[in-house]
Amino acid sequence: MTALATEPTPETRARPPHTGCVLTMDSTYAARLARHGASPDSWFPERWTLDGPEPYAVPLPGPQPEEPGTAVLPLTDGRVLIHRAAAGRQMFSLLYPTGPGTGEVPLGAVECEELTLLPPAPDGRCAYALAAGEESTAVWQVAGAGFGPELLAEVPGRCSGGVWLSREARLLALDRAPSEADGGGPVKTVVVDLDRGGEVSPLLQIAEDSEDRLLLADLDSGLILLHSDAPTPGELRLGWGVLGSTLPIRFPESLRLADCELTPFAIQPGQSLMPEGCAVALHVASAEGGSPWLGLWRPAEGRMHQVAAPAGWLAGSGFFSRDGVLSLPYVTEDAPCGLARIPTPEPCPRRREPKEESAPPEPTATRPVPLAQAPLGGRTTDR
Predict the structure, then answer these.
(1) How far is CA 287 from CA 237, 257, 260, 278, 291, in A?
(2) Which pairs from 42-47 meet CB under 8 Å and 24+ separation?
(3) By three-state DSSP, how is residue 224 classified?
(4) What is the C-alpha to C-alpha distance for residues 377 and 229, in angstroms, rounded to an integer?
């Protein structure tokens, strides 16, 4: 197939900057593109092991340095998928350590100008990617398919994002913009059934003319985080809901900071049937620039704790334990492979929710508290 390169879209700009650190869904491994010192021509893949008492990194250098745009994705068997692009070909291989060297298993290539890896699949054994064309988007299985990349589905429209909604990597949520041939229209999140030839069904339809994009979903509790301009036309607001619930999506003021961009990146797992009690971690970036910091939030609490990020945080990456401890990967000169662990602050009494139609005071971003004070002294942003 042939896919065309595209300009950045609002849905891709809404996500935190790509840091090259990707975690398996079970948080046993991570992978990133690292480099030797500050040399611009020394990029190499690196695998992190996270399920032991302390994290450790294994370099996986090839015979020559990688391009800085090379993508990597860890699998739960310890291998790392690497995606390289050259002359209209998207090439894939599996890397693994072999004593002092790096083993590599070529997986084949896809002929297209641009292709984006999807987030790690729940089963941890396979990898998938999107290739957007003029009228449709191809979903490829690029690892675990047997003999080279396999085309699984052609989805009408231009798709981006990617959130898994089933543990067997069957149901995939994509943010789809209808093609001009189909009349165009706002971006809506749809579900693609990969076991039924890419059958498409709607997921988010908050308002007829609103742009609705799914950002994150937890398979234990059903909690979802999304962006939509339904409550405030022209402004993408963060909202939350529950998969399968008949209750409306809510857009609390606690998920709104003036002159800041908030992007959720982790949800506390293991909270079956308790979506409102799940802790959510958010990447907070100021429009004025500077280092990002953290937001820690629960739907039931109605406020957001702002916490300083650790030095060297690989921004936008991290994971929760079942008991609500947030682990953040970081790299410093003294710690080339580190995990900062932050207990989520204890819930505070829920405050009264202001009515959506009223004009609430404009929320502001405060300076985050030092990391050491996070468990007890985290500042909050009220609804």
Answers:
(1) 16, 11, 6, 28, 11
(2) 43/67, 43/68, 43/70, 45/70, 45/72, 45/80, 45/82, 45/95, 47/74, 47/78, 47/80, 47/95, 47/97
(3) strand
(4) 33
Place of tokens 């429209």: 157
Assigned token pair, 112: 């297209």
DSSP E strand boundaries for 165-211: 171-177, 188-193, 199-202
What does DSSP assign to residue 162?
A: E
Sequence letter at residue 37: G
Strand, coil or helix: 375: helix
pTM of structure: 0.85
Q: How many whole angstroms separate alpha carbon 221 and alpha carbon 58?
A: 34
pLDDT, position 39: 78
Say how far apart CA 332 and CA 338 lie, in whole Å.
8
CA atoms in the 13 A half-sphere facing the CB of 299: 21
Query: H or E stretch including 377?
Result: helix 374-377
Distances in Å between the alpha carbon of 281 and those of 229, 255, 264, 322?
Answer: 22, 11, 6, 14
Q: Which two tokens stand for residue 37?
A: 């010192």
Residue 292: HSE in the Cβ half-sphere, 13 Å Cα cutoff: 22
82, two tokens: 């690497």
pLDDT of amino acid 69: 87
Structure tokens given for 299: 């739907």
209-228 tens-digit pLDDT: 999 999 999 999 999 999 99
Question: Using CA atoms, how far apart are residues 29 and 50, in angstroms rounded to an integer?
Answer: 5
User: What is the side-by-side order of every strand in the sheet holding 171-177?
Assistant: 158-164, 171-177, 188-193, 199-202
Task: Give the sign of the dihedral formed by CA 75, CA 76, CA 77, CA 78.
Answer: positive
Which tens digit of pLDDT belongs to each residue from 11-30? 433 334 345 699 999 999 99
CA distance 129 to 143: 10
- pLDDT in the model for residue 33: 95
Q: Are 218 and 267 in contact (CB under 8 A)?
A: yes
177 Cβ partners below 8 Å, 6+ apart?
9, 157, 158, 159, 184, 185, 186, 187
Residues in the chain predicted with pLDDT less than 70, given as ranges, are 1-20, 348-383
